[in-house]
Each structure stands twice: as structure tokens, then as C-alpha cells.
Design brief:
522 residues, alpha/beta, Purple Acid Phosphatase, chain A, domain 2, eight-stranded mixed sheet, seven-stranded mixed sheet
């Protein structure tokens, strides 16, 4: 969103605040040899987590959603339509991954009831009408990562105006509905209280007993947090790892290594960005004028969504440009997390009990959605992930397999399945899936088409290709919006086979149609 509407904490602040909330490396944790990045899912099917469990022999499945948490739609919720699709597979799925932006617009605790708890009520224990956002327990595990909106805050005056005008905005159905209340995320605090093991709230005198109650599992010689569906369903940290059915899953917080590199303050780089910014501001102003003309002739819900989607897309592009222009120094990078990922991937490859590896985080390094590929954040995440995977490739023998078997992302509001080719880096020949079309505004694919190119040493080459894209299509009068989630089936055996089945809830001309795209192996 535009920097005039929202604020985002600096990377240093994100890291420090999250460490405080989980009491990162507190003496009571260190003394018990607790690894605050390890999670063990005790669902009664696996036994010891590092063993080759029944799920490794027979296979298992899991579900994926992302960029879902909207409450803007008053009469027909795309998020709920996607959730209904997932419900057909819920009982057979071991868990659900969420690729971030759990709650829009600014990750506020006020929005969790309508934007998360209500649409995913079948995943939760209890009557959803009475569940508090910081007291959620999942009978069907939902394992999320942080999106950028989960860190956003509102400037005080905007929050005040939004809170005061909420009844008026609802009554008039303004199609530029900010979808906010009085508060923002408090620098990610709402997400932390909703999902993390918020040790900061545990009194010092009771901390030891609390740790002995919930950190009861052992993994790689360290104690780990135990996730018990229906009883205790907290995550140990903003980034974490767990093993299921012989597959190592790595959940990352890409919000702390996505800062674009600064542009030179003289020359064509900065000039191009400023010209692009000016064009986007003009386009946004035209949309707002169009909105003003319709105040006394209200648009239907689909047209309202269309205007809001276009403005939201422009705001995101403006925000990314501002990040590049206003960065006057080398960006802060979360080296601790990236080093952790490098070391854990190397250890995973050296462990004979592990038969595959899956990463999931918010910002996609590869994507063919129109607004995300050229963004500075996309390039920054790709750069840092490449460095990690290059370091892993230098240490392990993969016998021709990619370093990871699948990468799952959100942020781009679409479903996008890509494969990298010979990139010259450790990210070569990997399937990348963006599952970010689970409820919020959908976006179109880039006009340039499915081939993603890079210019290296003066030569342009294709580094990735999109093989399936589900996003907004059609003209402005007849838009087709295929919102989506995903089912991933993991076969038994080594190496495992991964089969993807997109689960679609499509809205066209005011009507909903739910269907599944034929599954395909990656």
C-alpha cells in the first residue's frame, strides 16, 4: 500500500520485536537445550519425528492458501468460497500451510474475527462466534508465515478516521473500502499473539514449568516445541522448521530480507523510477476521480472490487518504488535467518531419514504476475535466496536432484506454477508455486508472457517459465476471477513425487463455480 496510508517497521525493528515476544534465547530456554526454530507435530500418526514414519511409507497430503484475509466483500466472500473447496479435502490432509497476509489490510487484531476465524471456522476448536484471536486452537493444523500486511500499521490520524467512519463506510458501501478499523498490527504483534508461542506473556516465575509442559519433543538432539492439534497449537518463532513424513519443511520470514538495493541518486535508474511513479500517481488519481463520480450511483460488488483491486495494485507498486528511492544505504539483511536456512538445508541433505525438502515464505523470487516481477523486493529475495542455495550446493551432493523439491509463496494475488531452468545458481530446476489468490484481489499475468528473463553480462536469457497461471482475466465489464487454494500430494518412497491439484472458486458475472484443475506432477 502507499506509504501515505500505511507504515511498516524497519527490518531491525521487526527482528527485535519478534525476538522479545518469544524470549529469544532466554536463559531458561538455553539451559534446557531448546531450539526455538524446531516444531514437532504430534498428531498421533508419526511417532518419533525423525523416524521414517507411516506417512513416509504411504505418503500424505497437505493444503495451501495465501493472501486470503479480506473482509471487504459484504455479500459474497471469495475467501470463504475457497475454504469450502478446501473442506472437501480437509479430513484427508495432514495440515494447511498459509503463505502470508493472513489478515488485511494492516494485520489488525480487530480483523481476525471476520477475516480469519469466521472463514476458517472448521479448522478451529469451539464456536467461532466466541473465539478470541489470541486464544485460537486448531483441530486441523494451520501453519502460517508472515506476510507484509501482517506487519503493517496505520498512522494515528488514518486509524482515527477509519474507526470513526466505519458505520458510514458500511452503510454507503464505498467501493474504496479501506477494510481497516482503529488499529494496525502493532509491528506484527497481532500475528505473534495469534500464532506464536508468546512467551513474553508467561510470568518469569512460571516460565520453567511452562517450557517443561510444552517443549517435550526431541529433534536432532535438541528439545522442540510440541504442536498438538486440538490441544496446543503454537509456533516457536517467526521462522521455523518441522519434519513430516520424511519431508523437511522450512517456514521463513521473507519480510526481513526483502529490502531492495538502493538506486543511484543520479542517472537513469532513479529517473526511470520517478517517471514510473508519476505515471502511477496519475493513473491512481483517475481511478479515484472515477470513484467520486459514482458515489450517488453505487456500483455492484464486482465493479467495486475491480476499482479497489486496481488502486491496491498501484499502491503496492508505489510503495516498492518508494522503498528503492528512499533507501540511502545498503539494506539491512536478516543474516541470522539466512545462515540458519543454509545450515539446516545442509544438515537436511546429510540426514538419511530425510527424503525431501519444501520451503514456504511470502515474497516470491520467481513470478509472472504483472506487478510483482519487476519489483525491487522480488529481486532482493531472489538474490538472497540464491546466495543461500549456492552455499548449500557447494557443500552437498544432490545426485542430480534440485536442492529443494518445492517452493511455495504468496504476495502475488494469483496461482502461478513456474519452473526454473539453468539459472547458473543453486535455484536451478526447482518448481515454484505462488498460492496467493485465496481471497484478496486477483491480478493479471504480465503482458510479456510466461517466460521470465534476466540480463546477465549483457545477454538476455530465460531463467524460468510459467506453466499454469490462474488470475484475473477478461475485460473490465466481464472479468473472470478464479480464486484458488492448493492440494499437494506427497507420495511414499525416495525421492518422493509431488502432485499439485489447484482448488478453484471462480466468480464470473456474479455467479460462483467451484472446480478442481486436473492434478499434475512437478
Amino acid at each position: 500500500m502507499s506509504s501515505k496510508l500505511v507504515t511498516e517497521p524497519a527490518i531491525e525493528v521487526k527482528i527485535r520485536k519478534m525476538q522479545q515476544r518469544v524470549r529469544w534465547q532466554h536463559p531458561e530456554l538455553v539451559g534446557r537445550a531448546i531450539d526455538q526454530t524446531r516444531l514437532v507435530i504430534d498428531d498421533g500418526t508419526q511417532g518419533a519425528i525423525a523416524d521414517n514414519s507411516r506417512a513416509a511409507t504411504d505418503g500424505f497430503s497437505f493444503l495451501v492458501v495465501g493472501d486470503s484475509g479480506t473482509g471487504r466483500h459484504r455479500t459474497s466472500s471469495p475467501q470463504r468460497q475457497v475454504a469450502k473447496q478446501l473442506l472437501n479435502h480437509l479430513d484427508s490432509a495432514s495440515f494447511t500451510l498459509h503463505t502470508g497476509d493472513v489478515v488485511y489490510l494492516v494485520g489488525s487484531r480487530e480483523q481476525y474475527g471476520s477475516n480469519f476465524i469466521k472463514p476458517y471456522r472448521e479448522w478451529l476448536v469451539g464456536d467461532y462466534h466466541h473465539i478470541k484471536y489470541d486464544r485460537m486452537t486448531f483441530k486441523h493444523p494451520i501453519l502460517p508465515v508472515l506476510g507484509n500486511h501482517d506487519y503493517y500499521d496505520l498512522p494515528f490520524l488514518i486509524g482515527l478516521a477509519a474507526g470513526i467512519t466505519t458505520p458510514l463506510r458500511y452503510l454507503l458501501r464505498f467501493f474504496i473500502d479501506l477494510d481497516v478499523g482503529w488499529h494496525g498490527s502493532y509491528q506484527g504483534d497481532a500475528f505473534a499473539q495469534a500464532f506464536l508461542d508468546y512467551l513474553r506473556a508467561v510470568p518469569e516465575a512460571r516460565l520453567g514449568k511452562y517450557l517443561d509442559t510444552h517443549y517435550t519433543s526431541t529433534d536432532a538432539g535438541d528439545r522442540a516445541l510440541t504442536y498438538r492439534p486440538g490441544q496446543f497449537t503454537r509456533l516457536p518463532n517467526r521462522y521455523y522448521t518441522f519434519r513430516y513424513g520424511g519431508i523437511d519443511f522450512f517456514a521463513l520470514d521473507s519480510n526481513t530480507f526483502n529490502q531492495p538495493l538502493p538506486v543511484t541518486h543520479t542517472g537513469s535508474g532513479r529517473e526511470n523510477l520517478e517517471q514510473q511513479r508519476q505515471r502511477l500517481e496519475i493513473e491512481k488519481a483517475d481511478l479515484i476521480r472515477q470513484a467520486g463520480l459514482e458515489v450517488f450511483n453505487p456500483l455492484n460488488e464486482d465493479d467495486q472490487a475491480d476499482i479497489a483491486e486496481q488502486i491496491e495494485a498501484i499502491d503496492e507498486q508505489l510503495y516498492d518504488i518508494d522503498k528503492q528511492i528512499n533507501c540511502n544505504r545498503s539494506p539491512t539483511v536478516d543474516t541470522e535467518q539466512l545462515d540458519w536456512l543454509r545450515d539446516r538445508l545442509i544438515a537436511s541433505w546429510q540426514n538419511p531419514a530425510v527424503r525431501g525438502r519444501i520451503l514456504f515464505f511470502h515474497h516470491p523470487p520467481y513470478v509472472s504476475e504483472a506487478t510483482k516481477w519487476p519489483q525491487g523486493q522480488t529481486l532482493a529475495v531472489r538474490h538472497h535466496l540464491r546466495q543461500v542455495l549456492d552455499a548449500v550446493a557447494a557443500e552437498v551432493q544432490t545426485q542430480g536432484r534440485p536442492i529443494v523439491d518445492l517452493v511455495l509463496n504468496g504476495h502475488a494475488h494469483c496461482f502461478d506454477y513456474l519452473r526454473t531452468g539453468a539459472t547458473g545458481h543453486g535455484d536451478a530446476h526447482i518448481p515454484w508455486v505462488i498460492c496467493g489468490g485465496s481471497g484478496y484481489s486477483l491480478r493479471r499475468q504480465r503482458d510479456e508472457g510466461p517466460a521470465i528473463t534476466e540480463t546477465i553480462d549483457g545477454q538476455t536469457r530465460t531463467v524460468a517459465t510459467s506453466h499454469l497461471y490462474l488470475g484475473r482475466t477478461g475485460d473490465s465489464k466481464h472479468p473472470k476471477r478464479p480464486y484458488s487454494g492448493l492440494r499437494v500430494e506427497v507420495s511414499g518412497g525416495n525421492p518422493p513425487k509431488l502432485t499439485l491439484t489447484p482448488l478453484v472458486a471462480e466468480r464470473f458475472e456474479g455467479q460462483w463455480k467451484r472446480y478442481e484443475v486436473e492434478g499434475f506432477e512437478v
